[in-house]
Design brief:
The first copy, chain A, has helices spanning 3-18, 24-31, 35-42, 51-60, 65-71, 77-85, 87-97, 102-113. The first copy, chain A, is mainly alpha-helical and 117 residues long. The longest helix of chain A is centred in the N-terminal third of the chain and has 16 residues, at 3-18. The N and C termini of chain A lie far apart (42 Å). At the A-B interface, helix 5, helix 6, helix 7 and helix 8 of A face helix 5, helix 6, helix 7 and helix 8 of B. The structure holds a DNA duplex (30 and 30 nucleotides).
Chain lengths: 117, 117
Amino acid sequence: MTQFGTYVNTARRRLQEHDRRYSLRQVARRIGVEPGYLSKIERGQVAPPSEAATVRLAKELDQDADVLLALGGKVSSDLQDVIRKRPRLFAQLIRELKQAPDHAILRIVREVRDGDW
Amino acid sequence: MTQFGTYVNTARRRLQEHDRRYSLRQVARRIGVEPGYLSKIERGQVAPPSEAATVRLAKELDQDADVLLALGGKVSSDLQDVIRKRPRLFAQLIRELKQAPDHAILRIVREVRDGDW
DNA sequence: CGTCATGTTTCCTAAACACTACACATTCCC
DNA sequence: GGGAATGTGTAGTGTTTAGGAAACATGACG
């Protein structure tokens, strides 16, 4: 349930070992939340923070924002925007890809990036 | 701003012309909300309803749920679930497809459906 | 030893979300 | 013309979200 907190705590402590600027308090200050709040987040005492705070936290801890958002039960709003602009199309695509293996999706990504349409 | 309300009102009134079971009150009753609430929704006096209510409304009015959700500023939670399970992969894919033309996405949908991986 | 920084605990809250309750005026229609 | 049904207006409610404030206990260390 609190994958999020553990993940953040682990990532932060890993950085803290080599650099004491990664104390809970200092990280909290840099991402703009109260230490008490970050403490509760790390121990899963409260729900994961807002999208904005999650993204700042991910950057601070050098983690992938989409992954951290996912752990927080969220999907980046810029992705949602893309879907909301063409809902039928993207809904169909995503549902189709639900069971596709990773490599198939990666292949598509590459195809699209190499612009072969 | 209130695309949603207009869309619902239009769809409902179109049905109501031929079938008086599609009065605001009866539709409200069938989808399980108060008439006053649906009235305000249709006139954009309140924000679009929850995901669940939106889906019931779409079904009732024979509309595409993903489209109606999009008008309400939402993305179906089952799509979000798919993304949240493989955030990196889907984030990459969707951002890549952001600017792709419709036909290119449709082609991918077809390719995937015809299971050629 | 003192003080500085660290992590934690308790209590509180402002705003947003998702509605309900119910009275009211109007229109349908038999 | 009178009851039933329709749409609307006003007010208020419970819940969730996303935190802040401040005090507390613990340890580091110069």
